[in-house]
């Protein structure tokens, strides 16, 4: 009798365990989805996204001097230069990172800005076979390498493009660039009509584009170099002001405006501090 009682208990225990396992295995898809839900899944919820953007907008509207790591630009540059001691000044880059909250349905901010104090000397590739334009370019103070098929052949044979910051071409010279189109594209130097680097008047184009810096909003961030550690405080301030004015001028017309938020200043190896980008 004792044995039969034990067998009854064992059969009852294992049957319950087996039933529980069956329940889990035969659970509905909804139950399984709850069991497998990831904490990150809520980030795709439209309500959560709106709340997150709303918080970013509130933070972006706060005055810069309310931030605990706020500094004026001269004080910030002291920290940048101190952090770069031992590094050649010409190999350091001081940049601003601006938070931009884009309005829905409005094109992102982008453009070309001419800095009062250029970060790099203009070194341009110019593709043209017009002898008169070559002669005019020779009289300018810009560093350039000009040519037609001969220049294309030099690049095909391994001419380094590291030192070149700009590339221009006349419309008729575009057809000869096909063999080096990929090489120029990888270096960000392929001249196109859309970028404004193709013109019949190359000389005017070089003069207009010398010292210009391109920028484009990526996500919520706008990162733009503004100088080097060997620049004076005044030159850094003038460059930042030129960028701030250009960004404000690039705002879409009408009531829909992008919100310009926190701006950080940093160097290649230095810290990141908050500066006032709106009141310069």
UniProtKB/TrEMBL annotation:
Keywords: Ribonucleoprotein, Ribosomal protein
GO biological process, one term: translation
Name of the protein this chain belongs to: Ribosomal protein
GO CC annotation, single: mitochondrial large ribosomal subunit
GO MF terms held by the record: RNA binding; structural constituent of ribosome
Record-stated family: Belongs to the universal ribosomal protein uL1 family.
Gene3D superfamilies the UniProt entry points to: 3.30.190.20, 3.40.50.790
Pfam families, alphabetized: Ribosomal_L1
PANTHER family for the chain: 54S RIBOSOMAL PROTEIN L1, MITOCHONDRIAL, LARGE RIBOSOMAL SUBUNIT PROTEIN UL1M
